[in-house]
Amino acid sequence: MREQQSGGDRGAADGRRRDKRPTMADVAARVGVSRALVSLVFRNEPGASQETRARVFQAAAELGYRPDSAAQMLARSHSKVLGVAATVRNPFHADLVEAIHPVAERLGYDVLLSVTAPTRDEVKAVEALLSHRCEGLILLGPNTEPEYIADLGRRIPVVVVGRRFPGRGVDSVHTAEAKGVRQVIDHLVELGHRSIVHVDGGRQPGSVERRRAYQSAMRRHGLAGEIRVLPGDHTEESGVQAAETLLAEPRLPTAVLAGNDRCALGLLDALRRAKVDIPGQVSVAGYDDSHIAHLSYVDLTTVRQDPDRLAELAVRTVVERLGGADLPAREQVLEPKLVVRGTTGPPPGRAEEAAGAGG
Amino acid sequence: MREQQSGGDRGAADGRRRDKRPTMADVAARVGVSRALVSLVFRNEPGASQETRARVFQAAAELGYRPDSAAQMLARSHSKVLGVAATVRNPFHADLVEAIHPVAERLGYDVLLSVTAPTRDEVKAVEALLSHRCEGLILLGPNTEPEYIADLGRRIPVVVVGRRFPGRGVDSVHTAEAKGVRQVIDHLVELGHRSIVHVDGGRQPGSVERRRAYQSAMRRHGLAGEIRVLPGDHTEESGVQAAETLLAEPRLPTAVLAGNDRCALGLLDALRRAKVDIPGQVSVAGYDDSHIAHLSYVDLTTVRQDPDRLAELAVRTVVERLGGADLPAREQVLEPKLVVRGTTGPPPGRAEEAAGAGG
DNA sequence: ACCTCTACCTAGAGCGCGCTAGTAGATCGC
DNA sequence: GCGATCTACTAGCGCGCTCTAGGTAGAGGT
Question: What is the pLDDT confidence band of residue A298, given thresholds at 50, 70 and 90?
């Protein structure tokens, strides 16, 4: 490691550095008004003249004043902060987080994000949020003990996003997994596929539902004999492993439904790398429609879970509860939507036929 | 949208729900001691007997008490909170964030994360952090006006990670971009490449340095005539675009150095999709070694920027400043390390030769 | 008996803000 | 000319905690 020094414009030269941050009282003193007036101005409440407002803002800018949210929270009965727990590596969570911000803002709430990672468990993330005075919690595809979450729900409003959470008095918002899966299977069968494998999501959110839906959809199409579920989870690695399993066998299936987009990505790349033509030889479908799937280089057929809609509902639900709504726990289920892109097509030998029919 | 109701175990049935959260005073009252004593116990300070400690914790657990960090912050002179601003979609940032948490925790700091996204600009993210009373700021590859960051640095300790930030009195921690790029070019030239294109990172962190280093490394190898820089930024899309540009030309280069891993990913996929053999026809190298590059399905040759080291230094630097160290601004530069994986190899026509020599 | 020392505990003043209750001064109605 | 009604502002309590400056009780020394 190398170190360099660059122009030392630190320290005492600059007057305000190092002393404590300015407070409302400092601003008030500078303008020559009371603290309360400054408070009014910053909360945008009536009761101050336009001229005074301008002078207050001016002084605040000069001092570099910024309201202290800790003090605000303390003084207000409510903190106006929503906590979001997400997995840092999950791109769909990234989409959701992005969507949550504007909605919360519109409703006057600040968002605090706490991340879960292999090295940092969910409980810790949630505890951090709680001590930062979140009034409500939005848990993205949580993997913790249901009992823990239920317990949380007894203390503060909690909404679980992206997974079912029935019978525990906690609100949830998710898509109709079964319907999404059914749409994909219908799409594939319509294209002429019969040999359709499903790579499972293990104990990840939505997996159980997706697996069951796969099985029943296959049966509905008279393909009970073709049902095959490979174990996996929602990571790229599991897709790669599934691909390796399939490639080691004498005959590839003509289509694979992955547990989610990340898994599909792993599948896709391992297959392409083995010179398998996608979708010529094998069609691949994902689930989530995370921003990765949109990218032209992936161009994945997948099931869209509308993150904007999910985020909107999640935030609204928590805020309603906060508003004192003493309703029983709700489960809000969104319609998923199949998004057909470039990774699915007719199975080998059916290409011309389909081209003729499809128009 | 469908709605369901599930077991309504909400509301008045459960006593504690809806009433305000318990405070230290509640715990104290329950144990029959003073508030101050409870405070001692929770801060793990000497001055309470073992027995009392146990009783306090017991009571706290029964009440579901949790210290209110807003009040703690307010009462303490320092908040013990570090703010991190990251881009939600950047996987390398995810790696860094993950690495920052344990280091901060070890040093007794809590971490607040604020995300930047296309819809939410960096200034807003930083403002949020500041309001939440962060004592120090860690900015991951910031893209804001340098003047703004410099200004910030005058108020509170700020460390910029992943990009140079010279002469503005702000600490920075990054890798020696030039050296990393030189290593890649050396590696490629050694393999026999001459036609090596660089896809630029635009105004993204590190880009200028990488571009310059590419140019000078090429010149050093007597390949001044082969220098070619395509515009781009640090997204997958820009990689795809660069690939399209290259594919539209009569002759492909034999190697491409992308601005970062995301860009490399776009390149890779667009090329493979066009049936270009990687690395048989074209070698591709990235920059960052984000967790995506590790994945077996990507297996990208790239330049490793050690996120653990970067995180460690970043946190330590901020904390040192917080400790009152009144040093001039430091620039800490880490050594990058070339990681050769599967996307680079000898150029077309040199494969056998290299295989013979390489052992 | 008195003093000291240690171990354990308490009172109470803030931290920066929001908010309720109130005041000074201008304008208006009659 | 006096109360009524604004507008523009202020005083001061309390949010839940930390922390300084104590207080008390019992053990031990002289």
Answer: confident
